[in-house]
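Researcher: We plan to redesign the surface later, but first we want a full-length starting point. Tokens attached.
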């Protein structure tokens, strides 16, 4: 059975749409990257699903990259053993070839639109496009407000955090778990493990379980683990291990989860709204290392306020999803999906010929 993992390249946050699409693959070590072009409803998700199914059937590992706007829809598929990938290269995550044809190339799905019919529906297209764009503006405004309240609450908790105690605990873990692999530094791939979406928070901890039989769960309600995980990542790279750094949607420079597949070892953060939900190999209670003697009533108020504002943001994301669905419904009757599937089958055959 093929190894299947699931991540995100984009995430919704208080700073708007966060984007890791430039890091879908290392183009210096990629054989083929298909960049899909074409508008809403043209079949990009259909194309990528067909590619993924064909590769799973062939038994090669498949990494699915899901859409934060609709976590049931794909933004990309990576085939690590083939050094190949396919990605949605349209707004808001525009991707353009760096080494055209030699490495990355356009795949134009816009050819499958019925242009005459689409132009006749221009009024509906504009209405639904404006509606979903407006809803996203409102969503990000509420998510930003929630984030500001949250940061104020976290600042108070950090004042009482015993960082030295936490670092000592991590050093003990590293001395047991991180043996030397080789002389070359390990590489780091950056992904999001999840995002706030129109469905609420969606986290793909199934990928952690698929790659890492041993999981250290850090109970961390105030974003205290970032520096510790950066320390672990740096040490793993020094000792030759490749890592997957799962970035925080609100701050992509901060590591929220860290996976070391070569060791079967994972370090994950768990908090309300992002519960791991399984029994970990070990649990590290960072919350217990943050002593807070005062301001607990204020913290509870801030937590409730941030949750209410985030719910408003999620409601706006639901409206954006509904408007985008309506937009795709306008286009769908005018798309040659048989043509999309035929092209996907041809490209899958090309990929399999490289196995």
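Model: Full-length starting sequence:
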């Amino acid at each position: 059975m093929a190894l299947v993992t699931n991540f995100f390249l984009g995430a919704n946050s208080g700073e708007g749409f966060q984007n890791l699409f430039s890091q879908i693959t290392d183009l210096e070590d990629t054989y083929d990257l298909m960049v899909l072009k074409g508008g809403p409803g043209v079949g990009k998700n259909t194309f990528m699903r067909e590619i993924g199914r064909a590769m799973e059937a062939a038994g090669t590992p498949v990494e699915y990259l899901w859409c934060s706007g609709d976590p049931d829809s794909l933004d990309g598929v990576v085939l690590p053993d083939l050094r190949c990938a396919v990605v949605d290269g349209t707004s808001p995550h525009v991707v353009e070839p760096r080494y055209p044809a030699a490495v990355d190339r356009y795949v134009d799905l816009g050819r499958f639109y019925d242009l005459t019919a689409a132009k006749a529906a221009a009024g509906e297209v504009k209405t639904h496009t404006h509606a979903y764009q407006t809803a996203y503006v409102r969503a990000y405004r509420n998510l930003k407000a929630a984030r500001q309240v949250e940061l104020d609450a976290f600042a108070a908790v950090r004042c009482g955090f015993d960082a030295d105690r936490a670092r000592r605990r991590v050093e003990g873990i590293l001395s047991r778990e991180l043996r030397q692999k080789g002389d070359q530094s390990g590489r780091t791939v950056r992904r999001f493990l999840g995002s706030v979406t129109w469905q609420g928070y969606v986290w793909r901890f199934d990928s952690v379980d698929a790659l890492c039989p041993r999981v250290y769960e850090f109970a961390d309600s105030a974003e205290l683990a970032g520096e510790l995980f950066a320390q672990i990542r740096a040490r793993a790279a020094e000792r030759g291990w490749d890592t997957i750094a799962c970035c925080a949607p609100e701050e992509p420079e901060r590591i929220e989860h860290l996976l070391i597949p070569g060791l079967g070892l994972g370090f994950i953060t768990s908090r309300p709204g992002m519960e791991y939900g399984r029994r970990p190999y070990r649990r590290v209670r960072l919350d217990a290392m943050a002593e807070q003697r005062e301001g607990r009533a204020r913290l509870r108020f801030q937590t409730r306020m941030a949750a209410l504002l985030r719910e408003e943001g999620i409601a706006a994301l639901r409206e954006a999803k509904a408007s985008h669905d309506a937009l795709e419904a306008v286009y769908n009757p005018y798309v040659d999906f048989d043509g999309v599937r035929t092209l996907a089958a041809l490209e899958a055959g090309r990929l399999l010929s490289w196995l």
